[in-house]
Amino acid sequence: MAPYATKSAPAASQAAGSASVFVVTASAEPGTLIRVLGLFAVRDLVPRFVSCVRESDMLRIEVDIDSVGDDIDQILAAKLRQIIVVTDVALTQVAGT
Length: 97
Prior knowledge:
The protein has helices at residues 11-16, 32-41, 70-81, and strands at residues 19-27, 49-55, 58-66, 86-94. The protein is α+β, with helices and mostly antiparallel strands. The chain has a four-stranded antiparallel beta sheet, with helices on one face. The longest helix has 12 residues, at 70-81. The protein is globular, with a radius of gyration of 13 Å. The two termini are 18 Å apart. The relative contact order is 0.31. Residues 1-15 have low confidence and may be disordered.
């Protein structure tokens, strides 16, 4: 298993090197970052990259993961949108990263 592979990631998408990029906009509150990252942790997903920038009273959080498939990506995006402090979630799938 590759160092950043996850238990649930399909081998085909890992071999192709595809990635999913989640860009989350949320209120800048003390628990916001841990709530966002917690959704990935409970699914045994280790991000390839995480960035968090505070812009006034909002956070812009980018989380890149090895692709686990479109269905799971959509579920993760929907779960992120359910977090009360989250105002927007954008999902981009990148092939061959």
